[in-house]
Write a structure and sequence with these properties.
This protein is an alpha/beta fold. Helices cover 45% and strands 15% of the residues. It has a domain of 217 residues: Rossmann fold. Helix 3 packs parallel to helix 4 and helix 9 runs antiparallel to helix 10.
C-alpha cells in the first residue's frame, strides 16, 4: 500500500510507520518533531514535517495514497480547550477534507476509549453503548467530537475504519507508565477508593497489529468502530504492583477514599486554572477515575471482523517496558 501516517513522531504513529516500512509498504510520515522525524528516516521512513492546520500540505501528502492512518492528536490529562479543539477536532476535519479530495482508499482513524469514560465502573464496554452525557475531560470531549465527525464523513461516503486503543504502552512510552513512575519514585503511590477496580491496557505491538489489520480488513468493516486492548483485564492495583516489582521499586500504598481524592483533584484543577499555572495539576479528576474505577473493553468485534489476536501478553509487555526503562533511565 501507499500509506500516509499522521502523528508519526508520536509513540503509536512512529511504531506504525516503522512497521509499515518493515512490511515493505511505501510510507510517508508526517509530524512536528524534527528530531523524531530524523530517527524515522534512519529506519527508511520518508518523513515530511507538517502541521495539521496546513491544509495545502495535507492535500499534497494524501494525493495518491491508498491508506491514511490518522494517529496525530494532542493527548494530555490537562490543557486548554482551544488547544484540544485545534489539534483533535479541526486537525481531524482537515485530514477528512484532504482524504475526500484525494480519493483516498481508506482512512484509519485513531480514536480513544476515554470518550466512553465517566466516574462510574464500566465493564466490557462495547462499541455501541451510549456515550456518557458529558465527557470526563477536555481531551475526551475533543476526541469524542473528532470521532463524531469521522463517522459523519463515513456516512457521506468516505471509507473509514475507527479504532479505540486502550492505554497503549511499551518500550518508548512517553506518558502512561512514566507519569506513574515519576510519582511512585517518591516512595508513595496511593490507592484511591476501594482498591478493587480492573483495567485494560494495550501493548504497543498489539495496537500496531490492529492498525495494520484495519487497513487490510474487508469492505464490510468500513464505517465501523473497533475497541482494541490486550483482551486481558487485570486488577488495577495488581498491575501497578507488578510494574513496581519489575523495576525493584518499593512503594507505600496508603488508601484514600474516592470522594476525598476526587475532591482534592477538583481543588487542584481549579487552582491551576485560577492561578494560570504551567504544566498539569499533580492530581486530576480523570486520573483519580482511571485508578479507582473499573474500565474494561469488549474486543469481540475486533477479533471477529479484523482477525485481531493480541499476540503480546500483558506480562511480557510489562517486562519489555521495564527492560527499556532500566536501559534508558537506570534505576527509578
Amino acid at each position: 500500500m501507499r500509506a500516509l501516517v499522521t502523528g508519526a513522531t508520536g509513540f503509536l504513529g512512529g511504531a506504525l510507520a516503522r512497521r509499515l516500512v518493515a512490511l515493505r509498504h511505501d510510507v510517508l510520515a508526517t509530524g512536528r518533531d524534527l528530531r523524531e522525524g530524523a530517527r524515522l528516516r534512519e529506519h527508511g521512513v520518508e518523513f515530511a514535517p507538517a502541521e495539521l492546520g496546513d491544509r495545502a500540505a495535507l492535500a499534497r501528502m494524501c494525493a495518491g495514497r491508498d491508506r491514511v492512518f490518522h494517529c496525530a492528536a494532542l493527548s494530555s490529562l490537562w490543557g486548554r480547550a482551544q488547544d484540544f479543539h485545534t489539534a483533535n477536532v479541526a486537525g481531524t476535519d482537515n485530514v477528512i477534507a484532504a482524504c475526500s479530495r484525494a480519493g483516498v482508499g481508506r482512512l484509519i482513524h485513531v480514536s480513544s476509549p476515554s470518550i466512553c469514560m465517566d466516574t462510574r465502573d464500566r465493564q466490557l464496554i462495547t462499541e455501541t453503548e451510549p456515550l456518557p452525557a458529558r465527557p470526563i475531560n477536555l481531551y475526551a470531549g475533543s476526541k469524542r467530537e473528532a470521532e463524531k465527525r469521522v463517522l459523519a464523513a463515513a456516512a457521506a461516503g468516505l471509507p473509514v475504519v475507527v479504532l479505540r486503543p486502550q492505554a497503549v504502552f511499551g518500550p518508548g512510552d512517553p506518558a502512561i507508565f512514566p507519569r506513574i513512575l515519576r510519582l511512585a519514585q517518591r516512595g508513595v503511590f496511593p490507592v484511591f477508593g476501594r482498591g478493587d477496580s480492573w483495567i485494560d491496557i494495550t501493548c504497543l505491538d498489539n495496537a500496531v497489529d490492529a492498525l495494520v489489520l484495519a487497513a487490510e480488513a474487508p469492505e464490510r468493516c468500513v464505517g465501523q468502530v473497533y475497541n482494541v486492548s490486550n483482551g486481558d483485564p487485570r486488577p488495577t492495583q495488581e498491575l501497578l504492583n507488578r510494574l513496581f516489582a519489575e523495576l525493584g521499586l518499593h512503594v507505600r500504598r496508603p488508601r484514600i477514599p474516592f470522594a476525598a481524592a476526587f475532591a482534592a483533584a477538583a481543588v487542584l484543577e481549579r487552582l491551576h486554572t485560577w492561578l494560570r499555572l504551567r504544566g498539569e495539576p499533580r492530581l486530576t479528576r480523570y486520573s483519580v477515575c482511571v485508578l479507582a474505577r473499573t474500565r474494561t473493553l469488549d474486543i469481540a468485534k475486533a477479533r471477529r471482523d479484523l482477525g485481531y489476536v493480541p499476540r503480546v501478553d500483558t506480562d511480557t509487555g510489562l517486562r519489555q517496558f521495564a527492560g527499556w526503562w532500566r536501559e534508558n533511565h537506570g534505576n527509578v
